[in-house]
């Protein structure tokens, strides 16, 4: 698959000679892919991404992977605070309420295989915008099929049964997996948005088991994050 090249002026050099070690997935939250493309190329908007994938599966390249696209904004993952300098951003044309089209997901999967091969990015470092900015973002949202990606080695999914534990255990495991520090309520909402979008109510044993499994198998750099 060869992306259509439509350069955006909204990019800069990666800071500190950083190389991509993350992929951040977004939804556009706009009515059409063409409207999203116009915004991502508008110098006044000062936003961009490396790729935009339409519902039809057409991929548009806006910023070269070696450069720093302006897609992530303020946030953190695995101790990285300048996420733009360390990531490749992919926008999926979707309003946030509809399922993601099959051809769109196929195109994404093909793109992720290539990106992973080029930059040696681990599947646990393919994340959502909401993961790295839990207090302000929710994309790619509850309709995005993370388990589908995980089954192909393009993301991760917990393999766990219900257990008992405390809120402190839950928060510690989230930090160990890579989430930024935030209130327990925000972290629970963000975690469920990705891994249990139909769940509601207080923290329960399934939440504890799922993040315990993820943090054990995919800890930040193989160790506890620094204080």
Account of the protein in words:
It is built from 7 helices and 8 strands. The chain has 227 residues and is of the alpha/beta class. The chain folds into 2 domains: 148 residues, Lysozyme-like; 52 residues, no CATH class. The strands form 2 sheets. The chain has a 6-stranded mixed sheet with strand order 1-5-4-7-3-8, sandwiched between helices. A two-stranded antiparallel ribbon has the order 2-6. A hairpin with a 5-residue loop joins strand 4 and strand 5. Helix 5 runs parallel beside helix 7.
Q: What is the tally of helical segments?
A: 7
CATH hierarchy class name of the largest domain: Alpha Beta
Main sheet attributes: strand count, strand direction, barrel closure: 6 strands, mixed
What is the beta-strand fraction?
A: 5-15%
Mean pLDDT: 95
Q: Write down the Rg.
A: 17 Å
CATH architecture descriptor of the largest domain? 3-Layer(aba) Sandwich
Query: How many strands?
Result: 8
Instruction: From the 3D structure, determine the CATH topology of the largest domain.
Output: Lysozyme-like
Sheet with the most strands: spatial strand order: 1-5-4-7-3-8
Q: What's the CATH H-level superfamily name of the largest domain?
A: Peptidoglycan recognition protein-like
Number of domain modules? 2
Q: Which residues sit in consecutive blocks of at least 5 with pLDDT less than 50?
A: none
- The percent of residues in helical segments reads 25-40%
């Amino acid at each position: 698959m060869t992306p259509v090249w439509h350069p955006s002026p909204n990019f800069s050099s990666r800071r500190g000679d950083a190389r991509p070690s993350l992929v951040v997935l977004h939804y556009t939250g706009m009515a059409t892919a063409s409207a999203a493309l116009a915004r991502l190329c508008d110098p006044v908007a000062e936003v961009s991404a490396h790729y935009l994938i339409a519902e039809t599966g057409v991929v548009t390249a806006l910023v070269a992977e070696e450069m720093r696209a302006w897609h992530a904004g303020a946030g953190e993952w695995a101790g990285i605070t300048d996420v733009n300098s360390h990531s490749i951003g992919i926008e999926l044309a979707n309003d946030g309420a509809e399922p993601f089209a099959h051809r769109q997901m196929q195109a994404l999967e093909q793109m992720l295989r290539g990106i992973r091969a080029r930059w040696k990015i681990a599947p646990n470092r393919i994340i959502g915008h909401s993961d790295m900015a839990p207090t302000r973002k929710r994309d790619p949202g509850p309709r995005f099929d993370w388990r589908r990606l995980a089954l192909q080695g393009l993301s991760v999914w917990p393999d766990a049964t219900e257990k008992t534990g405390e809120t402190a255990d839950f928060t510690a495991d989230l930090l160990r997996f890579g989430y930024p520090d935030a209130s327990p309520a925000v972290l629970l909402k963000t975690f469920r948005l990705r891994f249990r979008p139909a769940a509601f109510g207080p923290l329960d044993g399934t939440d504890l088991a799922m993040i315990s499994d993820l943090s054990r198998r995919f800890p930040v750099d193989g160790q506890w994050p620094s204080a």
